[in-house]
Design a protein that fits this description.
The longest helix is centred in the N-terminal third of the chain and has 16 residues, at 2-17. Helices cover 13% and strands 47% of the residues. A hairpin with a 2-residue loop joins strand 11 (258-266) and strand 12 (269-287). The protein is mostly beta strands.
Length: 565
């Protein structure tokens, strides 16, 4: 018995307190290009236990992967080796706790002007200020974007430009407490409706305040990590889902929300719990004594958890739940990280909108991966396979190939998505739709729709990448009269659930007015100096409703200079 207790103590100690010597607790933003490189390395069999269904990951985790990749240089292409060299500079401190390949602008008493000129052209990681000792480290970067875009389309032809500046502050304390702060503000010129076509910029509330000509963004959190367990509170962009294109569950289309999050990862499994604060639909209440309108929005929340299991290096399985609830304060039942949400919501009076998902990724051979997601929004097991409106689900499967047909430094992706009518809506509470501030949290094709997505990435060098994509979407839209009144509800709008006694049931997929959409995009990114980027982009969008002669077509051109110093 005593021997068993000793073994148990050693196992628990390793799980909770085991850390690599050098560890940065803060996360790498989910939009960082490191994740596409790690995905290549996973498919090539160089790294294992890469759980990318939820991003971001910590700098500590990514540093561990870089170490493994560095030990397998002989398996990399020339371009991949050059990318690795860049990453060894960027993550030098995370790997070695040294900063020999970093430039610190405000270091000691150096002249700032001459230092700025000298440091700009050095192939080093650049910081405005860097501090480190045995207990605390701090990294401060200045951010600058200069952007110009031209938009031509059916209903809008105009230009817009902006200059965006800000700071990013991050670091760790005692290798256990990480912190992150990022704030930017942009001044723009031209037509604000052009900027509203951008999926990120349109999320800024300030853009919709007509007397202003600016928009801003903020992310910030603190994170505690002890070995395999971490806890985080704050605001950052989260991606949730295995999708190669727009994430099925949580993408970058909806506004960033504040959340608490916990993670546990140990060898073959990973568990994530998240509780977030969303924005309900906004209305206005008239206040007679002030002759003004007060903005009113319902309290709205999301609870989610996910379990990933890596049975082998070739097969991962995931199961997750989401619960959307609103019009009350935070529910303690959904703050329990070890629970089954569907049972909780039943015990709380069947008021909430629950979702249950299963997914897997499978690597049948080197350089090739398949993934499949099945996401249920209401499920009655006895009625599965029958044409019942309340057995609603979203289905997605995709394939990714690295260096396809022997083409080195290329990635190819194809993905199919199908979403049943009425998925993401809720007929007991309109506020419980799967949305934040009236924007779907995940994929934007919406319910009663399908899509085919194709993408080709080309790494021409470690500093030059070209990404080309094409997506075909077909959706069944609700039918309205000329006054905007709904004639036939086919489940094509997540804001309008099935109305019992009014709408015809069951509803088949792609019923209603057919809308075909074609989206072609090309994006070129060139890092001409370390941390200085020039981005070129083009997007063509065409949408045609059945029996409507005029198409909605637009072209979006843009060029951006990005500086991270």
């Amino acid at each position: 018995m005593k021997k068993f207790k000793n073994i148990l103590f050693i196992v628990i100690s390793n799980v909770i307190f085991n850390q690599i010597l050098f560890s940065q607790v803060e996360n790498i933003p989910a939009s960082h290009n490191i994740y596409s490189f790690l995905k290549r390395m996973e498919l090539k069999g160089i790294i294992n236990d890469y759980y990318d269904a939820i991003l971001p990951l910590s700098r500590k985790q990514i540093a561990n992967f870089i170490n493994v990749i560095s030990d397998n240089r002989n398996k990399l292409t020339n371009v991949e080796n050059l990318i690795l060299d860049d990453l060894l500079i960027e993550f030098e401190y995370d790997l070695k706790k040294t900063n020999h390949y970093s430039f610190n602008l405000f270091y000691k008493d150096d002249d700032v002007v001459s230092g700025l000129i000298r440091g700009t052209f050095q192939e080093k990681e650049k910081y405005l200020y860097l501090f480190k000792d045995s207990s605390v480290n701090l990294f401060l970067n200045g951010l600058l974007n200069v952007d110009f875009r031209r938009f031509t389309g059916t209903n809008l032809t105009d230009n817009a430009s902006f200059i965006e500046g800000g700071i990013r502050l991050r670091g760790s304390i005692q290798d256990k407490l990480g912190y992150y702060f990022m704030l930017t503000n942009a001044q723009f010129w031209g037509n604000r409706n052009v900027l509203k076509m951008d999926k990120k910029i349109r999320q800024s509330y300030a853009l919709y305040t007509l007397e202003t000509k600016n928009f801003d963004f903020f992310e910030g959190y603190i994170k505690f990590q002890a070995g395999s367990i971490s806890a985080q509170i704050g605001r950052e962009r989260i991606f949730w889902g295995r999708s190669y294109g727009d994430k099925l569950y949580i993408s970058d289309y909806a506004r960033i929300f504040d959340a608490i999050r916990t993670d546990f990862e140990y060898k073959f499994l990973k568990y994530t719990f998240l509780h977030g604060w969303l924005n309900g639909s906004k209305n206005y209440r008239y206040i007679p004594e002030f002759n003004s309108y007060e903005p009113v929005a319902s309290d709205k929340f999301i609870a989610a958890h996910r379990l990933d299991i890596a049975f082998t290096n070739y097969f991962q399985f995931g199961i997750h739940e989401f619960e959307i609830y609103s019009n009350r304060s935070v529910d303690l039942g959904y703050l329990n990280p070890i629970s089954f949400f569907e049972s909780v919501q039943r015990s709380r009076g069947e008021r909430d909108n629950g979702f249950l998902g299963f997914d897997l990724k499978f690597k049948p051979m080197k350089n090739l991966e398949f993934h499949t997601d099945l996401f249920f929004d209401d499920i009655e097991i006895p009625m599965l396979g029958k044409n019942r409106w309340d057995n609603k689900y979203a289905l997605q499967f995709g394939l990714m190939a690295v260096d396809p047909l022997g083409l080195k430094n290329f990635d190819f992706v194809v993905e199919y998505t199908q979403i049943d009518p009425y998925v993401f809506s809720h007929n007991r509470s309109l506020e419980n739709s799967f949305a934040n501030d009236d924007v779907l949290l995940g994929t934007q094709i919406g319910p009663n729709a399908i899509s085919w997505y194709f993408k080709l990435n080309s790494y021409l060098s470690n500093r030059l990448t070209i990404s080309t994509s094409y997506e075909f979407q077909r959706s069944g839209e609700n039918i309205y009269d000329l006054s905007g009144n709904i004639i036939k509800n086919v489940g094509g709008d997540f804001r309008i659930p099935l109305r019992i006694g009014i709408d015809q049931i069951p509803t088949k997929l792609l019923d209603g007015q057919i809308c075909d959409t074609h989206i072609f995009q090309i994006f070129v990114s060139y890092e001409f100096i370390n941390e200085f980027y020039l981005d070129l982009r083009y997007k063509r969008y065409e949408s045609k409703l059945q029996n409507v002669i005029k198409n909605l077509t637009y072209h979006d051109y843009g060029i951006t200079l990005r500086i991270d110093f």
